[in-house]
Amino acid sequence: MKQVFIAVLAFCAASSFAHTGFAWDPLHVLDAGEGEVSVGTDYEKHGDHGGLVFNAGVSYGIIEGLEAAITFPFYHHDDETGFGQPALGVRYWLPIDLGFFANLALPFAGVGPNDLGLTAGVQYSAELTDELSIGSEINIGDLLSDGAKDLTIGLGLEHPLGPITLSIGSEFLIGIGDDAEKLGINPCAGISFDIGEMLHADVGVTLGFGDRYGDDMPVIISASVSLHF
After folding, report:
1. Do the beta carbons of residue 92 and residue 61 sit within 8 Å?
2. How far lies 195's CA from each of 47, 123, 164, 181, in Å?
3. What's the DSSP call for residue 24?
């Protein structure tokens, strides 16, 4: 249960793209001096277990191409309630639509894992047509741990349709090392829309398939609102 939760939702406050485990939104990069505040909630159901996580995050464009973010999760999950690990993130985006990032989970959690954790990866995005964009990501988590790690491969498409934008995608979780987790596949779909010039909303659903999750398919329903400044 917690493995699904951590893999899919760890940095969702920093990115709403396709509602996957993308650490950052590869299609929407902040310009220098721009910022975004995001709040949201995610409901997860996996077999007989379920719960909520509330997310709050801030991201800011420091200079052109360089972004920083901080996120704070709060869990209300089965019998556990409390703050999860806050996370610091930094991303550098090149003019060739290629970006590199690192996210550091801090050891100050009341619920869930409480070890210093590092995830690093690379992203690429492109406009396939005037109305269809693709974003992709490869990352490796638990880089500070001596144990098994996860290689995550994510792919998503975004298409504007009138006042709303549709997004679909999937991530593939591949365990690396001894006693690694089995394969997990998380397809997702989302809708986003603007509320005025500065306010933006997202809703989406993510499913879980593969041996990693056993016989019960996890379902995550997400909703968030972000303020651009």
Report:
1. no
2. 35, 28, 10, 40
3. S
Place of tokens 């490796």: 140
Residue corresponding to tokens 């879980």:
208
The b-or-e profile of 62-93 (16+ CB within 10 A means b, else e) is eeebebbbbbbbbbebeeeeeebbbbebebeb
What is the identity of the amino acid at 66? L
Encoded amino acid at 79, one letter: D
Tokens standing for residue 141:
């988590």
Q: Could you give the residue ranges of the DSSP H alpha helices within 32-121? A: none
- 16, 28 Cβ separation under 8 angstroms: no
DSSP-H helix ranges across 21-62: none
The total number of residues shown for the chain amounts to 229
Pairing verdict, β 149-161 and 87-93: unpaired
Amino acid letter, 10: A
Q: Which helix (H) or strand (E) holds 4?
A: helix 2-9
Instruction: Convert the pLDDT of each residue in 133-181 to its tens digit.
Output: 999 999 998 899 888 999 999 999 999 998 899 988 898 999 999 889 9
Going by C-alpha positions, the residue among 76, 62, 74, 55 that lies closest to residue 32 is 62
Residue 129 confidence (pLDDT): 92
Residue ranges of domains in the chain, CATH in brackets: 2-228 (2.40.160.40)
CB atoms within 10 A of CB 128: 10
